[in-house]
């Protein structure tokens, strides 16, 4: 059993909590049984390491079965080792190391996409993770993160996705102008979300949501700049009927993606 939290192996894995180390290794951390389960079910070829405490291995026998079925070695580790590997205050006894699971913009554009979330200059890891999860739940074709957004393999993002990072295509490190140009060429209507745009209700009433759509969501505090919003075909808002000053980014994104899914699935 691996029981030295200061061993070279443990120290090397724990460094994946830093973006520069993730980028250099093209690996990221997955914590907890649920996210690890999704990795083993949907992307087992991406899993390069799996650490379980003995107690966690007893509680999560399905993880052991999935790993063995995929030919993945399991390392039993002490609570201290798992704590050293984890980014959370209260580790759950399961840490997985996965290869990056991002895809190319060209691959997404060539897959006949119909409902896409584009995140531009989004900085909060929880927002990124929750939007990826909402996009997955809504059956979206992909999530695209521009180079100015948070790294989707940040441990906080990965935890917030609860495994959806292994379900839906994710594109990273692209420029917004390149993305919009590609989406337009692929036949999608690009909608920039902003407070002063036309109501999504009106777009839905005119059957505008039934066609392939890409939603562009901007920074939590500042939204999209005028220059960035001008790249889109339409500017769309989610109306507020009560007294709230605004909606959270992740709530607005979930509404837009689900309204589109409702229209497209009829």
Brief overview:
The chain has 266 residues and is of the alpha/beta class.
Account of the 3D structure:
This protein has 266 residues and is an alpha/beta fold. It has 2 domains: 8-99, 2-Layer Sandwich (60s Ribosomal Protein L30, Chain: A), CATH 3.30.1330.30; 105-265, SPOUT methyltransferase, trefoil knot domain (Alpha/beta knot). Helix content is 41%, strand content 20%. The protein is built from 13 helices and 10 strands. It has helices at residues 8-14, 19-25, 33-42, 54-59, 61-69, 79-85, 105-109, 125-137, 155-161, 176-185, 200-205, 226-229, 249-265; strands at 27-31, 47-52, 75-76, 94-99, 115-119, 142-146, 170-174, 189-199, 213-217, 234-237. The chain has a 6-stranded parallel beta sheet. Helix 8 (125-137) links the parallel strand 5 (115-119) and strand 6 (142-146). Helix 8 (125-137) runs parallel beside helix 9 (155-161). The model has no long low-confidence stretch (mean pLDDT 96).
Any chance you could write out the topology, listing elements then pairs?
Elements: H1 8-14, H2 19-25, E1 27-31, H3 33-42, E2 47-52, H4 54-59, H5 61-69, E3 75-76, H6 79-85, E4 94-99, H7 105-109, E5 115-119, H8 125-137, E6 142-146, H9 155-161, E7 170-174, H10 176-185, E8 189-199, H11 200-205, E9 213-217, H12 226-229, E10 234-237, H13 249-265
Parallel strand pairs: 2-3, 5-6, 5-9, 6-7, 8-9, 8-10
Antiparallel strand pairs: 1-4, 2-4
Helix pairs in contact: 3-5, 8-9, 8-13
């Amino acid at each position: 059993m691996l029981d030295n939290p200061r061993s070279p192996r443990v120290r090397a894995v724990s460094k994946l909590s830093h973006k520069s180390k993730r980028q250099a290794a093209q690996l990221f951390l997955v914590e907890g049984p649920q996210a690890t389960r999704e990795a083993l079910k949907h992307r087992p070829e991406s899993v390069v390491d799996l650490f379980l405490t003995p107690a966690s291995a007893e509680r999560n026998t399905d993880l052991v079965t999935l790993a063995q079925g995929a030919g993945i070695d399991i390392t039993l580790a002490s609570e201290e080792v798992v704590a050293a590997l984890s980014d959370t205050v209260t580790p759950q006894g399961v840490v997985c190391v996965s290869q990056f699971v991002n895809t190319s913009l060209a691959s997404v554009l060539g897959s006949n996409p119909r409902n896409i979330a584009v995140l531009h200059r989004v900085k909060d890891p929880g927002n990124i993770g929750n939007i990826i999860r909402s996009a997955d739940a809504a059956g979206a074709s992909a999530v695209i993160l521009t180079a100015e957004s948070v790294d989707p393999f940040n441990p906080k993002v990965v935890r917030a996705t609860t495994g959806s990072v292994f379900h839906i295509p994710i594109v990273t490190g692209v420029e917004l102008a390149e993305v919009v140009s590609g989406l337009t060429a692929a036949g999608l209507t690009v909608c920039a979300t902003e407070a002063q745009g036309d109501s999504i209700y009106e777009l839905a009433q005119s059957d505008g949501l039934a066609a392939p759509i890409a939603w562009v969501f901007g920074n939590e505090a500042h939204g999209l700049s005028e220059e960035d919003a001008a790249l889109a075909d339409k500017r769309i808002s989610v109306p507020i009927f009560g007294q709230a000053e605004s909606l959270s980014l992740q709530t607005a994104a979930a509404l837009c993606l689900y309204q589109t899914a409702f229209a497209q699935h009829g």
